Amino acid sequence: MKARLSRAARAGAAVLSAAALAVLAACGGQAGVGGGGGATGEPQRGGTLVFSWNSDAQSLDAARCGQSLNWGPCQAVYGTLLNYDAAAQRFSPGMAESFTSEDGRTWTLTLREGVTFSDGTPFDAAAVVFNWDRAKDPATLSPGASYARQMSYRATDARTVVLELPQVNWQLEWALYSELAFIGSPAAIQQKGQDFGSSPVGAGPFTVESWQRGTRLAMVRNAGYWDQPRPYVDRIEFATIGSDDQRLNALRSGQITVMSTITDEYAERALNEGFVEKTLPHVGGTGVRVSWTKGPLADPDVRLAVAKLIDAQQITDAFYDGVPGPTTFAPETSPYYDPKAVYPAQDVAGAQALIDGYRARTGAPEVVVTYNMVAGIPLQDQVAQMLQAQLQRVNGLRLEILAKDGAGFVTDTTTGNYQLALVAINGVNPDLLWQLFRTGASQNTAGYSDPATDEALDGARLTKDRDEQLTLYKAATERIAGEVGHRSWRYQTTHLVSADTVHGVDPSYNYFLRSDTVWLDQS
């Protein structure tokens, strides 16, 4: 393994990536899923799986499940319309039987016959239409809003939904794995109102039993799940443990079954102790999302000054034992690596000149930039303090750190209430670049707007050719990096670590696993 935490950071926690920010890894050639923990022998029924990550879900409302922290628990409650195999780099049927198109504009979604929600109501085309209509409502804060608003759709019979797009989009399958993938019971949504996000009803492999916010979310096997004999475990629990040290200790003691971490050093410790892992490489990295509309960052000179002051190598030297700090949008190991997609080079004198010019133009005595992060995670605190020191090397520039609780952080990030926000571009969805950086897209809460980026991202939707898609995504990352839409300071990989008695571990989306495929050796 390459990345290791320094001694100073070993009591810290993995950096949290919040909001719906997965990006870039499909369309051919991405790094695959690897490691142990795969299926061995015939799956066995029974047992309790305890999965632990560093943050709790914020809502289990189907409209919000495409957000990063919600995806794993939501997959257990709802399933997803399509599944995605990161190792094989292909989609497969999920809750839907098929999703097809001849021209990239008209798509046909066919549902499985006889599937019901756990409340006994039908999982049918009308339910899909109801959920997608609901995603359009700004009040739901749905990451699927931009998809739902741009397309028309109708139920043509009980099992069929026909979608019409204003233009070709060969990336639409990704929406049925993430933003529009989760279908809740219309009857339960109408009955429960605002409480539905805490007490959801889906047709997936599990049903919610209890939820101690910030601690543990417990679910039990849905005996009526369509894909018998799945799920294999009788019970799944999502345990929130903020520190990697504490998660590893919980794994050692048997308090948890699967540990998710993006800190390579802790995974290496576990492997040295006889545990096994599955890995999911992230093409992008952890860093800051940069608002183009809020406060002084609405000025391009201030954005560029901030980018010139961020020293990724200093951060990795301090906290990750000197692994190479990102200088390009994607790492060299990624098929999306482009040596021209470079972040602005460090230049303190140049940053000082830009800040001095801004102050002279505006009459501002001081330039104050705010940085949103999640409270209570030690490593985040340490990185924030280093970032603050880096930016304040320039006279007249001050960074104010705003530590938020998880729910507040996600709300601010999804509504655009930030200047700089701690964000990781992660996961396996290249079309999320469109969602995050296309002018006017619903997840483009930073207000990033660049015609050349728009042209490249639109072009990647218009072609089925994977080589063309790859070229266009590279062109987009050149602009995003150079125009300061995002600045990473660390690349990352998800490690799902477990004992060798845990099988069928399928790393999914970003930090999670598929709840219906995992099983425990009971012998």
**CATH-defined superfamily of the domain at 283-492:** Dipeptide-binding Protein, Domain 3
**CATH C-level name of the domain at 283-492:** Alpha Beta
From the spread of the alpha carbons, the general shape counts as globular
Instruction: Classify the helix fraction into a percent range.
Output: 25-40%
Descriptive report:
The chain has helices at 71-78, 125-135, 145-150, 186-192, 244-253, 264-272, 300-309, 312-319, 348-362, 378-391, 406-415, 432-437, 451-462, 466-482, and strands at 34-35, 48-53, 82-85, 90-93, 96-101, 106-111, 152-157, 160-164, 206-212, 216-221, 235-240, 258-261, 276-290, 367-374, 397-404, 420-424, 486-498, 502-503, 507-508, 512-513, 519-520. With 523 residues, the protein is α+β, with helices and mostly antiparallel strands. It has a domain at 283-492: Dipeptide-binding Protein, domain 3 (Roll), CATH 3.10.105.10. Strands 1, 2, 9, 10, 11, 12, 13, 14, 15, 16 and 17 form an eleven-stranded mixed sheet that branches. The radius of gyration is 22 Å and the shape is globular. It starts with 33 loop residues before the first strand and ends with a strand. The model is unreliable at 1-33 (pLDDT under 50).
